[in-house]
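Feature request disguised as a bug report, sorry. It would help if multi-protein outputs had a clear separator. Right now it looks like this:
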Amino acid sequence: MLSFQVSNNKPTKYCFMKKRPVELVVLSDVHLGTYGCHAKELVKYLKSIKPKEVVLNGDIIDIWQFSKRYWPKSHMKVVKIIMQWVAEGIPVHYVAGNHDEMLRKFLGFKLGSFSIVNKVVLEINGSKAWMFHGDVFDVTMQHSKWIARLGATGYDMLILLNSAINYCSKKMGKGPVSMSKKIKNSVKSAIKFINDFEQIAADIAIENEYDYVVCGHIHQPEMREISTSKGSVMYLNSGDWIENLTSLEFNNGEWKLYHYMEDVMVVNDDENVMEPMDILDKNQLFQNLVREFQFLTSAENK
């Protein structure tokens, strides 16, 4: 990653930052292959970290809505980075979700440090973490998959419409809005579904004496302790890379809910917000590409 200062629209200082070490990273609901996926932002995040272990907790590739007509380079870059981690021997557990349920035909598959599973139980600092996607609790997935698929298509269209509205809002000097969040927050049944989902996951985790239960599926990033008469458990949800742009990280004995939008490097100049990569000159960009190429070739030769 790069860090620099800006003065009079000109880069004045460059310095290279080491990748941030993370013991465990949990990603879910990326939905590669759909228009709503923020793959470019995800690539920046993945390049900024150096994980020791990775859990892809479902719906990474959206096979439901996959189309040969739409597979941008940024989506392929996400796959390449993950494959690079596998090549380096970093354990990558791919937990199948509902949008990539086709992979459940290959449960138990292993290739090097890569595996396809239905759930993951990891021991973290002497505590047990139970990780699964969470669609097993979704009634529509159990009885009316066509409704779920129709809802997924509608959701993707809503995200596209939301993007257009936010573009116009930005031009007018206003902040972004999330239409789907507003809809979820205004519909009681949606709120009840989320609350029921979290409670059911916690109840089962407590019964099985897990210390953590880690889910995805509902696109609702969360990290909180849930207690019942039988005990308590830490409930965690990694959110998504459609609206929230979040992940879960475990490092130095602590869980953290990572928010890309809170961590993104931006500079403000005369009230015009620019991303760092927008002000790099061609020579600097070329040097970055050379370094990236040297890193990849050295990793392949190991």
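(second protein starts here, but nothing in the output says so)
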Amino acid sequence: MSGFGGCLFRAARACLDAGSVEAKLTLTAEAGAAFAAGLLRITPDAPPPQPIRQPGRPPRPRLVEPRTLARRGLGSRQGRAAFIHAIAHIEFNAIDLAWDAIYRFRGLPDAFCADWVGVATDEARHFALLQERMADFGHTYGDFDAHNGLWEMATRTAHSDLARMALVPRVLEARGLDVTPGMVAKLKALGDLRTAEILGLILREEVAHVAAGTRWYRHCCARDGLDPRSTFRELLMAHAGSALRGPFNWPARHDAGFDQAERDLIEALEAQAGD
């Protein structure tokens, strides 16, 4: 922890820059523990955030266009390993997204940083569980290709805390709330209770992560004098139309802060996209 200098923003940048799985998980755990112990300060005179083209990453997995990723069924061990790897890749990116929110967006209430430190440590724990499960199938992180969609959205929203909160937690991460229950059911039907258990845990905790996005999105709208519903519609139409496809897990989305007006909006936009 000596490298953090007591500064949360410096700790966040160190976690972002960590180039190996082991370093990112270790630094995230250290920073989370230091913040919980009151050893990391939100320093108003810290140097301003610098652009980050890519966070630190291991040399593998190879990042490719999403459309080129091979589709594998869950019925084979290789297919199951590839599926777990894909979820692990999302969680690994989510560690960086949480630290980037802290590092990049200054001047928000201290509770904003507290929320995203908690998210970063949760995502690191999720990744570690999935990595351990991959090992049961004879694989490790990096054995399969992956895509860079989550970080690309982080880059597109680096200019705006409002856009980041709307489009990363409330669109990309909320998609996990929609698809995970079906995956859990399939895994249970295949007898893979351990993977189903891990995904069930991730689903329960991701509701709180999406809820944090909702909370801070609405805070930013109130700060900027914007209507959250019409602004969300504009952002969805501009940046996230392809993500609007059902089925939607409305009970989980409701718990994460989506209201009836937003449900009506998303369902209407999905219907338009299907026309």
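Even a blank line would do. Unrelated, but nice: The chain has one domain: 74-274.
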